[in-house]
Amino acid sequence: MYSFEYQRATDPKAAAAILTADSDAKFLAGGQSLLPTMRLRLAQLSQLVDVTRIPALKSITVNAQTVTIGAAVCHADVADHAELRRVSPGLADLAAHIGDRQVRALGTIGGSLANNDPAACYPAAAMALDATIVTERRRIACQDFFVGMYETALAPDELIVAVEFPVPERAAYEKFRNPASHFALVGVFVAKFASGVRVAVTGAAASVFRVPELENALSANFTPEAARGVSVSNANLNTDMHASADYRAHLIPVLAARAVTKANS
């Protein structure tokens, strides 16, 4: 690992100002992706700006319409928050199955979304629940936030402050996980709103995406049978050492059906 300076930020704007002045600096939250990259000498940074002690980034607020989660809240705290589990159990359950206990104790929701790993779980929740990503300077709709593999709409010096999730009528997440990393080979988040159903998939392509065919079928009939009756194209899906595009295409409606069963239980 190369040498670097460490700073602890006191507020979001001060943290962003450091990166504005120094293009080789990076924000540090849980560090679950950034620190291994540095340890392998795949990144050489001048400064790490720790944002985990900023009060505005550490809170969870829940009401009947919206769940607001600070960007530095770790996965374990999302999973264990009693009010969040009551109004949005699908989101809490997703957080409870990210990585292992150590990852959940350190990894943060803001870090996960900013990194936008193609197999990460939170992007599926953000897209299915129609989340809004709030930074220190603007609000970004989820459909505009995820750009591509490890790419988002964030500027290099822009800091996520919080994520706002509308509360669905019903929702659930199912993933077929890699047994070693616990990342999703395919993960499917299904959310039912009064306006219809949203379905988002992670792990299957370069970035999270929605499946209109499943959304239409489940909006008409929110049952596992309706999900299993949908055929998903393998076009633009990943083939790698873990699974083929065909297999991932097969898994998407299967996992959607399981998510519907869970949401209806």
Give a structural overview:
The chain has twelve helices and 14 strands. It has 265 residues and is α+β, with helices and mostly antiparallel strands. The chain folds into two domains: 5-166, Uridine Diphospho-n-acetylenolpyruvylglucosamine Reductase, domain 3 (2-Layer Sandwich), CATH 3.30.465; 170-264, 2-Layer Sandwich (Enolase-like, domain 1), CATH 3.30.390. Strands 4-5-10-6-7 form a five-stranded antiparallel sheet. The model has no long low-confidence stretch (mean pLDDT 96).
Short description:
By secondary structure, this protein is an alpha+beta fold.
In quaternary terms, these chains amount to single chain
Q: Overall 3D geometry?
A: globular
Amount of beta strand? 15-25%
Helix content: 25-40%
SSE order in H/E notation?
A: EHEHEEEHHHHHHEEHEEEEEEEHHH
Give the name of the CATH architecture of the largest domain: 2-Layer Sandwich
Unreliable spans are none
Overall pLDDT, averaged? 96
Number of domains: 2
Q: Do you know the CATH topology of the largest domain?
A: Uridine Diphospho-n-acetylenolpyruvylglucosamine Reductase, domain 3
Q: What Rg, in angstroms, do the CA atoms define?
A: 18 Å
Keywords: FAD, Flavoprotein, Oxidoreductase
Domain FAD-binding PCMH-type: 1-170
Protein name: Carbon monoxide dehydrogenase medium chain
GO molecular function, one term: carbon-monoxide oxygenase activity
